[in-house]
Amino acid sequence: IIRWDAFPSGHVAVALVTLVAALRYHRRTGLVYLPFVAGLVVATVYLGYHYATDVVAGFACAAFTFVVLEPGVRWWESAWARKRATPTSPTSP
């Protein structure tokens, strides 16, 4: 039984983003974290806090973070670095 309506599951999205980051940058920590995230995903549906669609949407939010936002941030940072690296010519009066 769903006690509250919440779409998407922010807990699942944040846990998955944290898990992927941990697996990327410190694999051992990520592997320790993996069963807890899996348990969170299963428990949110099993205990009735979310519908399965809420959890799937949480997965989609996490995927969006790495597929769209991360490359966008990298592009923005490189564009900003190029802009700052170009020398400015002094203006003549």
What does it look like?
This protein has 93 residues and is mainly α. Helix content is 75%, strand content 0%. It contains 3 helices and no strands. The protein has helices spanning 10-25, 27-46, 52-85. Helix 1 (10-25) runs antiparallel to helix 2 (27-46) and helix 1 (10-25) crosses helix 3. The longest helix is centred in the last third of the chain and has 34 residues, at 52-85. The model has no long low-confidence stretch (mean pLDDT 87).
Topology:
Layout: H1 10-25, H2 27-46, H3 52-85
Helix pairs in contact: 1-2, 1-3
Average the pLDDT over all residues and give the rounded result.
87
Q: Could you give the distance between the termini? A: 74 Å
Largest sheet: none
Q: What ranges have pLDDT less than 50 throughout 5 or more consecutive residues?
A: none
**Looking at the structure, what is the overall shape?**
elongated
Number of strands: 0
Order of helices and strands: HHH
Helical residues, percent = over 70%
Strand content: under 5%
Helix-strand category: mainly alpha
Count of DSSP helices?
3
Rg, Cα atoms, Å: 20 Å
